[in-house]
Amino acid sequence: SLCLSIIEEETPLTSGSLSSSYYEQYLSCVSIQGDLYSCLQCHYVTKHKRNMERHLSKHTGERPFSCGHCGASFSVKRNLMEHMRTHTGERPFSCDQCDASFSKKLSLIRHIRTHTGERPFSCDHCSASFSVKCNLVEHMRTHTGERPFSCDHCNASFSKKLSLIRHMDIHTGDRPFSCDHCSASFSRNQQLTIHTSRYHASKEP
């Protein structure tokens, strides 16, 4: 769409850098006040052009940057560049406290917190705190009761995606984890571990 194509321009988003007609159409999507970019379709506000670029793709649904290796597509070029590292194996972000390295800067930031013990994401309802935001988001559902992950086969719903995945085993019958000592098989590795320790511990080398 026009909104997304304009915001991908490398020039600063000001009335002087765009033609008057393009600028008018851009303002139908985004309001620029000083150094703030505000989305006119919702309440999102940011100081950064690239953040607004990513945000607008949520409204347009466009993913113009495609991987030539697997066909995966992305709304912003930076995400494609990060994805390409899954093919090249490049891990340019290294921890200065251990040998760990990562393909994404955010992954390094999260890893550093395992050294520092930092837990910057705190719950407003209790004393719980987390090193990554997604864990806080999941935790908040214990307070709100939100269960956004629903089963397509029954009325079950869950607060965590992993819980839904585990539930789906009931419907699919998938049991990929097999016991080496008997014919038992399980849908999760944890179940196999418990089974082995309970019934075959004496057989372990």
UniProtKB/TrEMBL annotation:
Residue ranges of every copy of the C2H2-type domain listed in the record: 37-64, 65-92, 93-120, 121-148, 149-176, 177-205
SMART domains: ZnF_C2H2
Organism, as annotated: Rhipicephalus microplus
GO annotations of cellular component type: nucleus
Entry protein name: Putative c2h2-type zn-finger protein
Subcellular compartments: Nucleus
Keyword Nucleus on entry: yes
GO BP annotation list: negative regulation of transcription by RNA polymerase II; regulation of cell differentiation
Keywords associated with the record: DNA-binding, Metal-binding, Nucleus, Repeat, Transcription, Transcription regulation, Zinc, Zinc-finger
Pfam families xrefs: zf-C2H2, zf-H2C2_2
Keyword Membrane: no
Family matches, as InterPro entries: Znf_C2H2_sf, Znf_C2H2_type
MF GO annotations: DNA-binding transcription factor activity, RNA polymerase II-specific; identical protein binding; RNA polymerase II cis-regulatory region sequence-specific DNA binding; zinc ion binding
Principal location: nucleus
Protein family (similarity comment): Belongs to the krueppel C2H2-type zinc-finger protein family.
